[in-house]
UniProtKB/TrEMBL annotation, chain A:
Protein name: Carrier domain-containing protein
Nucleotide-binding among keywords: no
One Pfam family hit: PP-binding
InterPro entries the record matches: ACP-like_sf, PP-bd_ACP, Ppantetheine_attach_site
Keyword Phosphoprotein on entry: yes
Naturally occurring in which organism (per UniProt): Salinibacillus xinjiangensis
SUPFAM superfamilies the record matches: ACP-like (SSF47336)
Record domain Carrier: where: 1-76
Swiss-Prot/TrEMBL keywords: Phosphopantetheine, Phosphoprotein
Gene3D superfamilies according to UniProt: ACP-like
Signal sequence range: none
Amino acid sequence: MTFDQFRQLIADISHAPIEAIQEHSSFRDDIGIDSLQMVNLLVAVAEKTGVSLGNLTDSDDYVSPGNLYYALFGGN
Amino acid sequence: MNTLIDYCMKKEHLNRVVISTFDHDYTVQDIEQLNNEFLDMLGPTSDLTGKRVALLVPQTLAYISLVFVINKLGGTVIPLSPQHREGDLSAILSSASPHMIFTIKHLNGMPYSDVMKEWIRGNNAECTLFESEEGMDWKRTDFEGKQAVKDTFDRHFILFTSGSTGVPKGVVMGQEVIIHHMGIIPRLINGQEGDRYLHIPPQTVAFGLVGILCAIHLGYRVAIPNQFDLPKIMNMMNRVGVQKVVSTPSILKGMYNLSKAIDPLVFQNIKECYLAGEMVNPGEVNEFTLMEKTKFIGVYGITEAGGIMTCDLRGELEWDVDEVYQFKVVEEELFLKSPAIFTCYYNQLGMTKEVLQEDGWFQTGDLAYLTPEHKVVIQGRKKDVIKKGGQQVIPGEVEKTLENYKSVKQAAVIGAPHSVYGEQVVAYIVAEQDVNTKELYHYCANKIAAYKVPDHIELIDEIPMTSGKTDKNTLRKRFKNKEKTLKK
C-alpha cells in the first residue's frame, strides 16, 4: 500500500477531507479525530488491510498519518 | 455542613492520593491548597449566589477545585465538555447565559476562548471571562453589556445534554442531590477507602464528576486519562496498580483490542469492571478472554436521576435497583422516585412537566418489565436516542444541523449497531440539488461535537413516512440490508 492509498483509506473511514491528511498532520489537532474515533480508525484499517495492530507500541505511532503508516506497513 | 468542600474534604484523608493523571498524583491536601489559591483569586468574600459559572477546564485538579470554590461562594456550576464544537457551545451558552466563564484558550485545534468571546460580544452579555493555557494561571477580562438574570437558587449544578428540539437541556440539581448521588455511586461500584480505579467517564457528566467527588470524600483513588493515549493509559494503570475499572463498553473494547498483545497483565489484574453508558448484550463481556476472572457489572444511570441500578453482565441482565429509589413500571415505562432525582430542566417548565410528575415520580423513557423477584429487565427506549460510545446523540439535533445545510431539504437520522461505538449515527437526506456528502460531513464536524457527526450519510429520493411521522423502522431495515449486501 502506498502512502497516498493510505491517505485515501483514512479519508474514507474518517470522512475527513483528504487535503487535511498529510504525513505530518496531527490526527487530533488537524484532522479532528478524537479518542474513540482513533480506535475505530485503527480497527477499520486492520479489517480492510489485514495488518496487525500489535505493531503499535508507542503513542507516537498514531500521532500522525505518516507515523501510523510507517508503524503499520513499515513504509512498504 | 454548608458546602461541598465541608462534605467532601476530610482531615483524615489529607495526605491520601485521590486523583492520578498520566504525570501527577494529587492528594486531598493538593486540592485544598488549590482551592485556597482560587479563592484568593476570586476574593474570599465574593458572592456568587444566584450566578451561573460555566467551566471548560479539562485539567482535572483545576476543574475540581473550581467546582469546589464556585460552590463555596454560592454559585451554580455549569460543566462544559471539551468535545463541544462552536454550534453546541453557542447553543448551551445562550440557554445558560452565564455570569462568569472559565475556559482554556484552545484544545485539539479548537479556539475555545475565541468562541466564548464571540458569544459574549454577539449577545452583548455582561460576563467575566477567565482564560488560561492549562487551567492553573487565569487572566480575567470583564465584559460590559446586558446583565443576565440571577437564579433564585444557589449552590446548584446545571448539566447540559442535547435536546430533541435542537435546544440543549440543562438538567438542574442542587448540591443536596449531588450529595445523594455520592451516597449511591460507591454502593454501585463497590467503592471503598484505598481502592484504585481507572475512571473513564467524562468529568463533565454527572457520573464522572460524582465519581471524582466520591474518591475525595471516601479516600479512594481515581486514575483519569488526560487523553486517549494507550501506552500512557497502560503505564498509568501499572503505576497506580488499578484493580477496578469504570468505563463505557466501547472504550474498554478499544483499549482491550489495541493493547491486549502489548500488556496482557494489566487486564488480568482487573478484579472488577463497571460498564455504563451503552447497553451490553448478554454474553458480550465473555469476549474479554484475558479477563475471565474479572467481575463485570453493568451500571445503569440517567443524568436526571443519577446511578440507579446494577446487574451481573455475565448473567441474565436483570437489574437490581439501589435502595434509595422507589420504582414501578407503568404502561411498560420505568418510573423512579427518590431524593436523587433532578429538580427541573433549566428554564424549560413544559419539558420538565413532561417527565417529572408533581408527586415526584420521574418517567425514565426506558421500556422495561419487572421479574417476579422485583428486578428490572430493560427492553428498549421510548425516547429516540442513539447511544454512541457512551454519549447520547439526539437524532432531532443532528437532523436540524443537516437541514441547515444549503441544499438539504429533509433529513432523518437513525442509530445502527456498530462494533466499536456500540451504536453509530446514520443519516438519510433528501436534497434539493446535488449535495457533496464529503462537504456535508465537514460542515457537521464544524457545527457539532465529533460523536454527533453522522458516520454514514446517504442520499435518498424520499423519507419513508408512517402515520405522518418518519418511518425509522423502514430506514433501519434499509441500512441493515445495505450492510449485509456490502459484507457479501
